[in-house]
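Ex. 9. Protein: histidine kinase.
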Amino acid sequence: MKAKRSHSWWSYIVDMGMERKLLLVFLIIITLPLSVISVISFKSYSESIQANTVAYSEKLIDQMMDSIDDYIEDMKRISSMPAYVNDIKQNLVRSNRYYEQKQMMNSKGGGTQVAPGDFDLLLSIQRGIEGNISFINNIKRGTNSVYIFDGYGNGYYSAKDGGVRLDLEQSYKFWSEQSRDSSGEALLFGTQAYTSNLQSTRYAFTVVRKIVDGLWNPIGLIAVEANISNLENQVAELDTVTHGKSIIVDENGKVIYDSGRKLLTTDISRTHLFRQAVGNAGSFYDTVSGKERLNIYSSSAKTNWKVIISIPVDELTRGVKLTRNATIAATLIIIVLALIISIILSFALTKPLTQMIQLMKRVQNGDLDVTFRVRRRDEIGLLGHQFNRMLARIRQLIQDIYRIEEQKKEAELQALQSQINPHFIYNTLESIRMTAEINDDVEAADMISILGKLLRYSTSDLSGTTTMKQELLYVRNYVELLGCRYPGRFVLQIDVPGTLDNYSMIKLVFQPIIENAAYHGLDDTKSQMHLSITCEVTEQKLLFHIRDDGCGMEQATLDKLNDSLKHEMPPKKSINGGIGMKNVHQRIQLHYGATYGIEVFSRPGEGTDVILSLPLQVQSARE
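Predicted structure tokens for histidine kinase:
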């Protein structure tokens, strides 16, 4: 049923008038490309915007991560400064010695009170360490606090804004435990929440390093702490450019910083967002609350922190949608204009065609005396001109047909008469031969017999084929007949493999070449002329060498002959042997192709070598 409907639909289109067809074609040609171009442009533009956003965002992320890496590297360098400041190390050693002695006294049951001289010692140690901490804290802009602990957890610190951890004891235990197995390298800890002495909750990330003496014995611990406000400006700038929301996480999925500061210190390692951000960098799409997002991420090779920025797709395609709407409006306007122009053009094009159709109907009814009035020089005018010429030609052909029919009848009568001529000649030669034998003239009888064989072979259908054996037999008969005319002057040698006896080929290939050699190459200074036919079998061709030891040809004559064969120039009688070989060459190329034929080599006084090439082909079955 569906096939029938599609067939009727197609038939309806095929049977439409030319004017409607042109209108339909114009609409399809204009509407379809515009629609396809609009869709492709919108899609490619959207993909280009997203690809450029990904590339640009990755660069911004990398720049931000480089800045953060540099900041953290500065923090690590600051954490290494106590190793180069002897005053800090000496005071830490003094502090460790004091508290070691204090601990020993306590274990022996001594008093826990601080002696008057101890206040001066502790105050000296505190001023010596905290004075250097203030110097260190002023080196790096943005550093929040620097804490230095002795071996017993006693902290010395300096804070720019006055905000100091209230949980120093717990923080020291955590830092000390995490750095226990380290050998003095800096350790980075992600964002942690703490309560300051100003009774406010703050967030900071920390670089911790052991402090060792000259013998690499640990004598304390330094913690360089930076407030997350140092990341805030960079993340805000990134969000402003990309219109997205950013989040920074460590390698374990713990949030270092996020744009809304709602996920600080939380673990998002099990969320779909973190699991999709596989590898060092990349991008992926997801949907949150029914809105599609483009997520772009990049990692730091130094800290293993990862920045993930989520951009709503609607923000990316906002400009693309405006372009799409403008394109649709322009497309509709162009289609309406095209419809109006198409109606005008289709009417202008089909009107002269309608007139021509009417004239053709008159011709169909037998009226050949009509004429199309040509008013234009376009294709329709050319068609009308050719229509007029066609009618004139038809009228001329009708007259020619009558004349040809008369000539054909005359030719058929002449063909019937000429059919008896070859049989008459064969029968006449046979009667002469029998008369010669009756009169005991054996030589004349043999000559007539050979002549009859040659005549029967040569006058048969030249378009047919023969075998190699029959063709070579014809050559032998021809040379034998020459021997009757010139006794002892010609010696023929044929060296062709017997496997080629049934090789199928066209007739009269070798004999014209032998004839040219005998009549045009005969050297009167020699008592005999040796003729030979040899075969060379190559991978692609059969090469037959027809050689003679006659007078040969001059170089100019030879070049002219080969050029005539090569360029298929008309043969001239002034070229010795040109006519017969030209005939053979043309028949070979017509039958086998342009890669086969004749090539002549000759030297004056030494003879001529004619190379005849034929194709390799499957031999017929032996008789």
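Check your answer against this statement. Residues 411-421, 569-579, 618-623 have pLDDT under 50 and may be disordered.
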